[in-house]
């Protein structure tokens, strides 16, 4: 079982490429809002089954800072709608972020049933689309945004949003990509080539601090942590 944690705070201050996203929004009536100040953990697997590279269930678990369990929110893994599962054997997956206002938790996964036919990290993203998930801490609802364009034959590793609509996503290739929940048209950012050369494409974690976007990488000789600077997209956020 793999876990990654984010602290929900309402006062949290927090190489864009062209991206194509298709959206499926789902409301979770059974999920209660997250209590401000509590922890939310991205959990891969049930805790009893052995993790497999062909896919594992994803849960968002809420705990108090004293360690008391509050609730577990399961991402869909069956049925005909959009699903969000994780490889479970890739320790760079499962990173979470929180929006500057503390409302949205961003994370990522794969749109596939369990088990997939082969290791899902090696699949083409057309056959097994990658997914950016956004969970609303105040309503208990979430959206799953699918891309068949990015992170093919590699891992999706995280997502961040400012408002539940604009999405920046990160993974094992493709650099940092941008899209919106309801957009079917590519967004082309300026300075993409120069930015990708500076930070690389094999990235780890994406976060927003002081209204600036930051990324980290553990690959090669490129900077371990970098700030993505460029022309403002909205509220001072960079496009490259």
Describe this protein's structure.
Residues about 10-20, about 185-195 and about 230-240 have low confidence and may be disordered. The N and C termini lie far apart (about 35 Å). The longest helix has 8 residues, at about 190-200. Strands 2-9-8-7-6 form a five-stranded antiparallel β-sheet, with no helix packed on it. It is globular, with a radius of gyration of 16 Å. By secondary structure, it is mainly beta. The relative contact order is 0.20. The protein has one domain. Helices cover about 5% and strands about 35% of the residues.
Q: Globular, elongated, flat, extended or rod-shaped: what is the shape?
A: globular
Mean pLDDT: 77
Largest beta sheet: what is the strand line-up?
2-9-8-7-6
Distance between the amino and carboxyl termini = 35 Å
Q: What would you call the structural class?
A: mainly beta
- The count of strands amounts to 15
List keywords for this structure.
240 residues; mainly beta; five-stranded antiparallel beta sheet; four-stranded antiparallel beta sheet; 1 helix; 3% helix; disordered C terminus
Question: Can you summarize this structure?
Answer:
The protein is built from 1 helix and 15 strands; from the N terminus they run E-E-E-E-E-E-E-E-E-E-E-E-H-E-E-E. The protein has 240 residues and is mainly beta.
Task: Produce the secondary structure layout.
Layout (H helix, E strand, L loop, with lengths): L1 E6 L14 E5 L12 E6 L13 E6 L5 E6 L22 E2 L5 E7 L19 E7 L5 E6 L8 E6 L4 E6 L4 E5 L11 H8 L5 E5 L2 E5 L8 E4 L12
Antiparallel strand pairs: 1-3, 2-9, 3-4, 4-5, 6-7, 7-8, 8-9, 10-11, 11-12, 13-14, 14-15
């Amino acid at each position: 079982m793999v876990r990654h944690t984010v602290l929900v705070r309402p006062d949290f201050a927090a190489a864009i490429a062209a991206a194509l996203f298709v959206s499926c929004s789902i409301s979770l009536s059974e999920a209660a809002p997250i209590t401000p100040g509590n922890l939310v953990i991205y959990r891969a697997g049930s805790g009893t089954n052995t993790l497999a590279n062909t896919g594992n269930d994803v849960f968002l678990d809420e705990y108090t800072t004293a360690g008391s369990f509050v609730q577990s929110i399961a991402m869909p893994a069956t049925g005909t709608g959009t699903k969000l599962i994780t490889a479970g054997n890739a320790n760079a997956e499962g990173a979470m972020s929180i929006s500057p206002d503390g409302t949205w938790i961003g994370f990522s996964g794969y749109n596939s049933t369990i088990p997939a036919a082969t290791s899902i990290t090696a699949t083409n993203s057309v056959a097994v689309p990658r997914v950016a998930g956004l969970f609303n801490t105040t309503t208990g609802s979430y959206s799953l945004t699918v891309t068949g364009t990015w992170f093919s034959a590699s891992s999706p590793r995280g997502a961040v949003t400012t408002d539940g609509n604009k999405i920046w996503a990160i993974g094992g290739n493709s650099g940092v990509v941008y899209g919106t929940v309801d957009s079917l048209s590519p967004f082309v950012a300026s300075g993409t080539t120069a930015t990708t050369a500076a930070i690389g494409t094999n990235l780890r974690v994406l976060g927003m601090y002081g209204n600036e976007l930051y990324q980290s990488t553990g690959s090669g000789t490129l900077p371990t942590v970098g700030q993505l600077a460029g022309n403002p997209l909205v509220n001072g956020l960079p496009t490259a």
